[in-house]
Design a protein that fits this description.
Two copies of one chain form a homodimer.
Chain A (H helix, E strand, L loop, with lengths): L1 H17 L6 H12 L4 E2 H7 L6 H13 L3 E5 L5 E5 L8 E5 L5 E4 L3 H18 L1 E14 H5 L1
The structure holds manganese (II) ion (MN) (2 copies) and zinc ion (2 copies).
The structure holds a DNA duplex.
Amino acid sequence: MQKNKKRQIKKSRQILLDNNIPITKPRMLVLGILLKNEGPLKVEDIIKLSRGKLAVSSMYRIINNLKNLNLINEFQTLENTKMIELADVKDEHHHHIFCESCGAVYDFEVDSHIEKELEKEIIKIKSKYDIIVKSHSLELLGLCKTCRDK
Amino acid sequence: MQKNKKRQIKKSRQILLDNNIPITKPRMLVLGILLKNEGPLKVEDIIKLSRGKLAVSSMYRIINNLKNLNLINEFQTLENTKMIELADVKDEHHHHIFCESCGAVYDFEVDSHIEKELEKEIIKIKSKYDIIVKSHSLELLGLCKTCRDK
DNA sequence: TATTATTTGAGAATGATTCTCATTCCTGAA
DNA sequence: TTCAGGAATGAGAATCATTCTCAAATAATA
Ligand SMILES: [Mn+2]
Ligand SMILES: [Mn+2]
Ligand SMILES: [Zn+2]
Ligand SMILES: [Zn+2]
């Protein structure tokens, strides 16, 4: 576990170095939290997980920071709560499923062949709408097992 | 044009009747605005288009009203502004493309065969994640012609 | 038209996010 | 290693969207 933590610290530092922004305690803290919890987090969660070591205003500033560097994805839950997660590294790409009853969010990937198919289709859109498509997001809405069993 | 307006009024009234909620001036007004502008609107736009004939609080109440009846879709722009549009009627189904530069939002439909393909793929998700998928949303991010030309 | 429950309007209250600015912290040069 | 200058942070005020409250207006119904 200690090993893991060290690796995360190294990784956080590297991310900041790669992006030419100063290595500060608050930024290391936020990255550490995002690295440790791979799923998406609510702003509120990040605040809690930082256990008073981070001002709320700083947290928002840092998140916007990272967002501008395309280091994090942001999306909204069904109740319009903002959620944050580390961005996909190149190649990799994932989507989200929401349970419409309990609001849980799950990551998922589609088979690469359908992702390819999808992308082919998306490229056609350029000609139809005269828009060059840069990225896409697919979200599913459903009912998780726990909620179904109730 | 007058003809069109009358048709819209009739349609708005019918929507309210179908859903068993009282036909009131504010509700007719909001539905009229949503019917007239088929694209998605910001809350702010609806307020403007109602030209002082509608209290802000009422507008929010009515929107939530219609949302609970599944009569409208809601989504967020890139800048996290809420947008609203009349929901797809059965069968029909559409998606959105955002221009990441100017923020414009366009509706689009994917060819039915890929939509089918997509849905097939989505069904598999049930077994993988043990979630029954009810609906999906696909959003594209790109660059529109006007922005490209600049 | 009169009755009654529902809806509306106005503005207060709330909650999330941004802003401000004095203080603290990084970093690179000496 | 120390230090100076510029950038980042913390605390709380300000802003903005949305919800809440409740008295007054309105719609459905007979
Ligand atoms: Mn995710
Ligand atoms: Mn649309
Ligand atoms: Zn659930
Ligand atoms: Zn554009």
